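User: Before I run my own analysis I want an independent prediction to cross-check against. Here's the chain; please return only the structure tokens and, at the end, one sentence I can use as a sanity check.
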Amino acid sequence: MAENEKEDGGKNWKRRAILAGISIIAGVIVALIPLSGIPPKAHNFLALLITVILLWVTEAIPIGVTAFLTGGGLILFGIQSPAHAWEPYANPAVMFVLMIIMFGVILNEVGIAKRILHFAIKIAGTNIMKFSIVVALASSLTSSIFHDATITIIFLFAVIPIFIKMGITIDKSTNLSKFFTILIPLTASAGGFGTILGGGRNPIAVEYIEKYIGVHVGFLDWIVIQMPMVLVASLATWAICWLIIPPKVKEFPAEIKTEKLSPMSKNEKGVAFVFILAFIFWTLSDLTKLHVSVVAALALIGIYGLRFVSIKTVIQKFSWEAWLVFGAGVSLGVAMLETGAGKWLADQFFPVINGQSHFVVYYGIAIFGSFISSFMSNSAATALCLPVLDPMAMEMGMSRLFIALSLPVTTSFIMLVIGCPPSIISYSTGYFRQWDFIKVAVPNTLILCAILVVIMSIYWPIILPLLGYAGK
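Assistant: Structure tokens:
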């Protein structure tokens, strides 16, 4: 494998050098362009952001190297102090992703992934279209209640044994493997706004609505308002993935369904017990007040301590580059927030849509929320956008409640791999490249935002008054 990489590097070094040069030049151009009303640190940040994004998308240099460049660049150009630049690489969300990726390796190592696959095939059958629709809907609906990263791991490692059985490797990834490894994180993320339990962005929006708009949105009311969009988003995402990267095969091998599994080993039972226990505590995190990363850490301590799996094996098979990329993405999100770059972008963008039709305004706001969420966690994006967009909604005569309710939805639709833990976890499997993800995620986001605006224009004006939220 090392020889192949060396040969590949020898053939493509000129192309990579050109792409790296273009990425750097693009950043320099942004830095030299005079931008009115932007703080100097925010200006430097946008220049660095352009370079980093282009390097990630083109993969001109290894993505892990670009992740280091991000933290180093924030310090070098005076955007963040060393502590502020590197701290996000180990914040709770990033450490949680590290541990969830480890869970994926563990599930595969002990053989539980095969059992999940066997169960899924029993329900959905071997027809790939039917199976993938079931996976998409199940991924979205379960992510409305449980953490989308956990759901992503479960479904990913249900399908990976199929790839192995069919001889599909990371080096020879096919449309089938790309389809599932991109579909699962996108549908998981698209389900996270279905209930208040689905993610941090939802309680942030509920709290803001109650505090600043003066409306309390109840748990069941939230489901009635948002769940239809979850179902539509899940099916639409499936259709978009199917159209852009259609699997060339229509049926899984028949032996997958008929294969008999041996009884569970002691290690399998131990890992399953610990994982189920962790799953329960993740679900009860609002009551226990234990951060999801604490539960994950305790679970891993149990698995490694009881020697169900060797930590050396997990470390050897762990995707360190993908994890570093997520850390770099969180660091960029923090810098965007603290330098004022996010607010400046909003100030430049919204005069363009001011005075347009309600559909155009809502669509513009939806795209902005998705764009911001592609560089930071959806919770942070929601927290950033709410106080910026709410006053603008008042100025433009738009419904403040509609805008506030739409943000947890739009920040669930991402355009880049770094946008959320599910996409990073899936990327860590190695079955798709950044560009494979972008060519699906960007049109998916554009279409889902348009669908949301249709629901906001037709469904919400009917259901909100019935629930007692008229006139907000």
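Sanity check: Confidence is low (pLDDT under 50) at residues 1-7.
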